[in-house]
Design goal:
Layout lengths: L12 H17 L1 H4 L8 E6 L14 H11 L1 H7 L2 E7 L3 H12 L8 E5 L3 H12 L3 E7 L8 H9 L3 E8 H6 L4 H4 L6 H5 L6 H11 L8 E9 L2 E9 L2 H14 L30 H15 L6 H10 L4 H13 L3 E3 L17 E3 L1
Parallel strand pairs: 1-2, 1-4, 2-3, 4-5
Antiparallel strand pairs: 5-7, 6-7, 8-9
């Protein structure tokens, strides 16, 4: 399939949404490593391995230039922290690669970070740096066309890394169209029958389930999706992290971009809810995703499947909801006289919970 060139015309709204989500999360991610009083990771690596040209014809920055822009904006913190920062940029197509270097060198500040450029296949570059990723904190943005680069093997390597967050971009329409092509099936083990049961709008949820199925049962790992509607079809971002702080921050970004479900730049469940002008009946103002979450969390608490604060919060994060959403349900159950809470509810920093507090059922 010929690679679609996104850079010969201005970015469409969907592409800009994708880039803004990426940039918003990167702005949340970076200070975790450079703004602490006590620096834990002395070195971080940032990877953009499908860099493109760097910007569009309207001078709107693409992902690699946004990385450098955010780093430049944090100059004082970077210098104070003395953290070594390496930015690894790759673009496979030679013509785009040359334009990318020219664009990046216009804004790169090598007194703050090192930029390493590559004009190679994704797998080659990933292989070169994988061992070094085991020793550093890492963030990877993988803005591929299609899906074939993020194989099961690559995914397993990513989730095995200690302090590594990733965000990759895939085309749901590509997946549905090529579900039975032999070459495609080599990379993505989902049958056409499974996909036909999903609308284009919901394919990202199926893809997410597929990747979740590859996480070992004894491993705590978090994935979250965000779907993006573009003129050419439905696309998806999938975020991954092994830390509760990472998933908290990404979900905060998602809910800022989608106040209805926290997972799309369009009405993904076609519910036609206008949160700025709610209807008279409350049940028609509550998205089905949220109602399912509310019912599920209440039942799991009352059935004692979730017995303490940490279990409740982990369940909520895995369902794509924030801790403040779980708190509303816990308070409702307490007010209804169904549970006793003898602990302080928190809205953030799940990773700082030291003593697990149990929920008592009346």
């Amino acid at each position: 399939m010929a690679r679609k060139d996104l850079f010969q015309k201005p970015f469409d709204e969907g592409t800009i949404d994708k880039l803004e989500i990426f940039e918003d999360y990167f702005k949340e991610w970076l200070p975790v490593f450079i703004a602490r009083k006590e620096i834990i990771w002395k070195e971080i690596q940032i990877f953009d391995l499908f860099g493109g040209e760097g910007k569009d014809t309207s001078n709107i920055y693409g992902s690699p230039m946004r990385i450098l822009k955010v780093l430049n904006e944090n100059r004082e913190l970077i210098l104070k922290s003395n953290v070594k920062i390496t930015v690894v940029i790759n673009e496979f197509e030679k013509e785009k690669y040359e334009l990318l270097i020219n664009n990046l060198e216009l804004i790169a500040d090598t007194s703050l970070y090192n930029v390493e450029y590559h004009n190679e296949d994704f797998g080659v570059v990933f292989g070169k740096y994988f061992e070094s990723m085991k020793l550093t904190a890492n963030f990877l943005f993988l803005d591929q066309n299609g899906i074939k680069q993020i194989t099961g093997g690559i995914f397993s390597k990513l989730i095995a890394l200690k302090q590594t967050d990733f965000l990759f971009f895939i085309s749901s329409s590509y997946i549905k169209r090529f579900a039975e092509v032999e070459e495609f099936n080599k990379y993505f083990k989902i049958t056409r029958k499974e996909l036909e049961e999903q609308s284009y709008y919901h394919i990202h949820r199926k893809i997410l389930s597929y990747y979740r199925s590859m996480i070992p049962n004894n491993k705590e790992y978090f994935l979250a999706p965000f779907s993006i509607k573009k003129p050419s079809g439905i696309y998806g971002l999938i975020f991954g992290t092994n830390h509760t702080l990472g998933i908290e921050k990404f979900l905060h970004v998602c809910w800022r971009h989608d106040k209805l479900t926290g997972e799309a730049n369009f009405d993904i469940d076609n519910e036609k809810i206008n949160i700025s002008q709610p209807g008279f009946f409350e049940e028609y103002n509550t998205p089905s995703k949220k109602q399912i979450f509310i019912n599920g969390l209440r039942n799991k608490i009352l059935n004692q499947d979730l017995q303490n604060d940490k279990e409740v919060y982990l369940y909520s994060l895995n369902e794509g909801f924030l801790m403040k959403d779980a708190n509303v349900i816990l308070r409702d159950l307490e007010n209804e006289g169904k549970v006793i809470l003898d602990f302080k509810l928190i809205n953030s920093d799940l990773h700082k919970i030291r003593n697990i507090s149990h929920i008592k059922i009346k």
